[in-house]
Amino acid sequence: MKSNYNAYHTGVKTCFALGLQEQLLPQPFIQSIPNSTLHYWKNENPDKYLGSDYASQLPLLT
User: Does the pLDDT value for residue 44 go beyond 70?
Assistant: First the structure.
């Protein structure tokens, strides 16, 4: 059975929680994410992720 939901990489969620999405993610990708999902991510407390204080210092890995 196919799910109606998309699963996103933790790094993407962390970008939004830290407010770094505009610097790190392409605009077409951001626009493809449902508004309700974006709202949830933007209002998440980044401190709930262990190591979040280091996340903005990590290089973007491919």
Answer: yes
Q: Tokens 């990590």 belong to which residue?
A: 58
d(Cα 31, Cα 35) in Å, to the nearest integer? Answer: 9
Contact criterion met (CB below 8 Å) for 37 and 7: no
Q: What is the mean pLDDT of residues 25-52?
A: 86
First to last CA, the chain: 31
Helix (H, G, I), strand (E, B) or coil at 54: helix
- For residues 20-37, average pLDDT: 93
Selection from 3, 49, 55, 9 nearest residue 33 by Cα:
9
